[in-house]
Amino acid sequence: MSSTTGATGTTGTNCPYCGWPDDAEPFRVVSRHATATGSTVWTRCGCGSLQVRAVDEHGVRMMSRSRPADAPGSRTGR
Q1: What confidence category does residue 73 fall into, taking pLDDT thresholds of 50, 70 and 90?
Q2: Where is the stretch described as Disordered (predicted)?
Q3: CA nearest neighbour of 49 among 32, 31, 33, 64
């Protein structure tokens, strides 16, 4: 399972909310933006977690992720 520091700084290769591998389907690309060193890709995991990935010559790094909308501690339903 992946470890996190808050909602940012993920290390490892699995979603901490559903356990699905970060490099496996299903994930949906929400948007893609060019940067000076590669691109930033916003994706949504199959469980609903929004993720920010940096893509450059070193590969893909998970930069940040949110809780799924229905996860405990989220603001939905208040």
Answers
A1: low
A2: 59-78
A3: 64
Q: What is the pLDDT of residues 15-52, one digit of tens each?
A: 999 999 888 877 889 999 999 999 999 999 989 999 99
* Alpha carbon distances (Å) from 47 to 12, 16, 57, 68, 74: 17, 10, 28, 6, 14
At residue 31, what are phi and psi to the nearest 5 degrees? Answer: -160, 160
Query: Are 41 and 35 contacting, i.e. CB atoms less than 8 angstroms apart?
Result: no
**DSSP-assigned beta bridge partners for residue 34:** 39
User: What region does 23 belong to: left with phi over 0, alpha with psi -120 to 50, or beta?
Assistant: alpha
Token duo for residue 53: 């990935």
CA distance 40 to 56: 9
